[in-house]
Amino acid sequence: MKIVVTGGLGFIGSHTVVELQNEGFEVIAIDNLSNSSIDVLEGIQKITGKKPVFENIDLRDKAAVQNFFKKYNDISGIIHFAASKAVGESVENPLLYYENNINSLVYLLQEMANLPEANFIFSSSCTVYGQAEKMPITEDASVQPANSPYGNTKQIGEEIINDVAKVTNIKAVSLRYFNPIGAHSSAEIGELPLGVPQNLVPFITQTAFGLRKELSVFGNDYPTPDGTCIRDYIHVVDLAKAHVVALQRLLKKQNVEKVEIFNLGTGKGSSVLEVIHAFEKISGKKLPYKIVDRRSGDIIIAYANTDKANKVLGWKAELSLEQALASAWKWEQKIRS
């Protein structure tokens, strides 16, 4: 079965390509290399023994998307990661996020609607919940007004998929994940942000390696036990495996609704300072950090109730925060050596 992975050389996309190939799927990876590297293909090949088919396409180019589907007309499913994903950047440049995240989704769905088998996995986010009123967050929690244009693109994306599924043969699963971290245990692929990292863990590992002078902690006056934001950090390999399980559910026609939604997390919240101290423990490195002003668009606390994914998908996060941090540190050291 041919499966398309958009953003297939990105952080989560590349790990999902590995898990798909491990399960015997034939993968076509689409990426425009705006936030990834062609070298990732070599890493995937080293892990799985097989290089996926690669197409360098910008999904904002409607004609290029149409040509891709003319070339590959026997696709069994699409896993859609390709999107801009930094909360802070989306606040500063909202039009970039609306163009990239919405247009690419629309162009994909327009072509998918013509396929005999239209199975779609959408990379959504816990940001759709905004600041949820109750913890842990269940899939039934109300979708709050978005705190950032990035979050809004995920809400709009889910609405578009729902509307399209009602009138086409498209079946979809939206996976709302919390905070992916870590790297493959082989250290052949991992998170590779271009420029200054927007996420906590690569900033931690780059600071530990000496590439950054110090780590910025955005606010220590939140209403949490230590004053810093709390998130649910999930190992990227656990996350990747969930995408394969969700895809297999659609392929086997086990879905009970045209569009299904699942939270993906560990069910445990960790504060920014807890993550820093956990990293110091596993690495033996003391991290220099300073408290700076809160960041626009950040919420206080978010961690998942994963009961639905555990019961319905039969999936559960298995790797710990410490294991994720250790793998991220191993990856950082490898790419800098």
What does this structure look like?
With 337 residues, this protein is of the alpha/beta class. The protein has eleven helices and 13 strands. The strands form four sheets. It has a seven-stranded parallel beta sheet with strand order 3-2-1-4-5-6-11, with helices on both faces. Strands 7-10 form a two-stranded parallel sheet. Strand 5 (119-125), helix 6 (149-167) and strand 6 (171-177) form a beta-alpha-beta unit. Helix 7 (200-209) crosses helix 11 (321-336) and helix 9 crosses helix 11. The longest helix has 19 residues, at 94-112.
Summary, kept brief:
This protein is of the alpha/beta class and 337 residues long. Helices cover 40% and strands 18% of the residues.
Task: Map the helices and strands.
Layout lengths: L1 E5 L4 H12 L3 E6 L8 H9 L4 E4 L5 H10 L3 E6 L6 H6 L1 H19 L6 E7 L23 H19 L3 E7 L1 E3 L18 H10 L5 E4 L11 E2 L1 E3 H16 L7 E6 L5 E2 H12 L5 E4 L14 H7 L7 H16 L1
Parallel strand pairs: 1-2, 1-4, 2-3, 4-5, 5-6, 6-11, 7-10, 8-13
Antiparallel strand pairs: 9-12
Helix pairs in contact: 1-2, 1-8, 3-5, 5-6, 7-11, 9-11
Distance N to C terminus = 38 Å
Instruction: Characterize the main sheet.
Output: 7 strands, parallel
Shape: globular
The count of helical stretches stands at 11
How do the strands line up in the largest sheet? 3-2-1-4-5-6-11
Give average pLDDT, whole number: 96
Return Rg in Å.
19 Å
Going by helix content, strand content and strand pairing, the class is alpha/beta
DSSP strand count:
13
Poorly predicted segments: none
